[in-house]
Amino acid sequence: MALEQFNLEGQVAIVTGAGKGVGQGIARVLAESGAVVIGTARTESDIAGTIADIEESGGKGLALVADAMSRPDGERVVSTTVEQFGKVDILINNVGGSTYARFLDITDDDFRHTFDWCVTSAFIMSQLVAPHMIDAGRGSIVNISSGSARFGIRALTAYCVAKGGLEALTRAMAQELAPKIRVNAIALGSFATDGLQSSLDMLPGSLEKMKEATPLHRLGNVEDLGRLCVYLSTRDCYATNATFHVDGGIDSNNSPLPIPDY
To answer: pLDDT per residue over 38-87, tens digit each?
Structure first.
């Protein structure tokens, strides 16, 4: 009986940035739980690969090339989803990122772009799906944040600020869209993705240092995030206006990359 509550059969989910990494892992688990997954990404080969994997595993999905920072692209994604599947039950705002830049080297354009990448994208997609969820009387929105919103990370100032803004957006939307729509955030720690690996490759031995600085002494698995998204998407879920920390227990920056003092 309990496990039946985690069956998402008949639900329709949009996952942004699902072409690789965290978004890909979440999309796969949602599909395994029965949801139809509409995955978006800017790179066609990435998102096509994700949806192909889902379908080969017996799931249902649709790949759409889109930039979540673009309202016209978002409108196309939502309208296509509603036209083909009749509704939107779940939105996972996973898009986000930043480039490494020390505080004095961040340009105004870099700062604005990072904010748009992490926050404006979630605002646009949430605003577009909310009317459909309100009409249906239910819906779940999950914003993918980061532990960097709680503590600063050198050379990622813009990212830290943007993820803090995303969590503020989560709280504001949760209050305004309740009771029909639940809005939560997941603050990530260090997860085993190609993106993280490329950063760690800059410094041999950094993976071991990162694990040692994490209380659980290991990196996270992206499928674990998918399982939490499944819970947050179940219709009887009582959580809203919450940020769930899935980070291996860190309470400070665990990055092993040496950023010198000024």
So the answer is: 999 999 999 999 999 999 999 999 999 999 999 999 999 999 999 999 99
Boundaries of every domain in the chain: 2-245
Residue 16: strand, helix, or coil: coil
Look up 231 and say whether it is catalytic.
Answer: no
Domain 2-245 classification at class level: alpha beta
Rounded to an integer, what distance in angstroms lies between the CA atom of residue 58 and that of residue 130? 29
Q: Is residue 204 exposed (0-12), middle (13-18) or buried (19+ Cβ within 10 Å)?
A: exposed
- 197/220 Cα distance (integer angstroms): 13
Closest CA to 78 of 111, 144, 127, 25: 127
pTM for this prediction: 0.96
Active-site pick, 100, 159, 231, 262? 159
Place of tokens 């499928």: 223
